[in-house]
Structure formats: C-alpha cells, structure tokens
Amino acid sequence: MIEIEREGKMVWMENVQRNDETKLEWIFRSIGIVRNNLFHGGKFPWDAARDSKLLDYGLTIILTSLEINKKIYGFFKLAKI
Length: 81
Known about the structure:
By secondary structure, the chain is of the alpha+beta class. 57% of the residues lie in helices and 12% in strands. The two termini are 14 Å apart.
C-alpha cells in the first residue's frame, strides 16, 4: 500500500506494477517506497517490530540481488519513486 494525496486528503492505495516497468523494477521501487515511508513519512503509530522487518526484508532483497548480478545495482539506482 502507498499513501497518496487525493482531493486534499491522504488516502491509501495498492502499489501496483506500472505498465512500463518490469517486475524487478517494481520490486526495487517498492523497496524505495518502504524506505522513504519509514524515514520521511509520518512516525505514528510507530511499530518497531513491523518497521524492523520491513527494513530487513528490503535489505535482504537488495544485498542478495547484488550478489547474484551486479547489473541489478542499476535498477535500484535508477528506480523511479
């Protein structure tokens, strides 16, 4: 889920894969959204267990991807968020 502004109010909507992005690009864009929400978004209610899991999962995907194929770094670096 991502939070967006609609008619002056913040609402939640599903984070769907865009027509112009691959599954891998969508995964890395989603990781970027999670990171931005955790570090720049509203801090309440703060859920340490959930937030830690989100960070761990994102980092695991990134680090594993970089080990598998160094070109994947380019997807993460260029992800449109």
